[in-house]
Amino acid sequence: MKVAFATDDGNRVNAHFGQSPMFAVYNVTKSGASLVELRKLPAVLNQDEAGKIDSRLDAVSDCTLIFIMQIGASAAARVTRRKIMPVKVPFGSPIEEQLKRLVEMLQGKPPMWLAKVLRAEENSGSEGGEANGTHG
Questions:
Q1: Cross-referenced CDD domains, in alphabetical order (predicted)?
Q2: What letter does residue 16 receive in the DSSP assignment?
Q3: Do residues 103 and 28 lie in contact, with contact meaning Cβ atoms separated by under 8 Å?
Q4: Model confidence over 22-63: pLDDT tens digits?
Q5: 87 has which bridge partners?
Q6: Model pTM?
Q7: For the segment 92-128, what is each residue's pLDDT rounded down to a tens digit?
């Protein structure tokens, strides 16, 4: 599964969803995590709140989880409607640490929220392809 992290340095979760200058996107499986890409958002002057949310939703549309420091209620609703689960973590949490915890959860018995997300991903990706995260 693909997982995004709201970041301004590529190393820590240190950005609010609506203000994040980029997302570090990783592919995460039971066997580990690998960086897919750093998705930088173009700076748009005078962009309204809806535009900021839209551009960020587009940037993470292929992700299953998004780790953020903070997210507004309307943005959270729009993210979850896209079948992306927002995960709030403390400011400055190292991405590597979050990835390690996520891989450990996948290897063991995932908590209910993660099991639900994985089931939904399996059901939507069952036609084939990489969506079900079975490679590796």
A1: NifX
A2: B
A3: yes
A4: 999 999 999 999 999 999 998 877 778 888 899 999 999 999
A5: 67
A6: 0.87
A7: 999 999 999 999 999 998 999 899 888 888 887 654 4
Q: Where are the beta strands (DSSP E) in the chain?
A: 2-7, 12-13, 22-29, 32-40, 65-68, 85-88, 93-94
Task: Report yes or no: 28 and 14 within 8 Å, Cβ to Cβ.
Answer: no
The sheet carrying 22-29 orders its strands as: 32-40, 22-29, 2-7, 65-68, 85-88
Rounded to 5 degrees, what angle do the CA atoms 87, 41, 133 make? 50
Cα separation, 24 vs 28, whole angstroms: 12
Superfamily for 2-132? Dinitrogenase iron-molybdenum cofactor biosynthesis domain (3.30.420.130)
The domain spans of the chain are 2-132
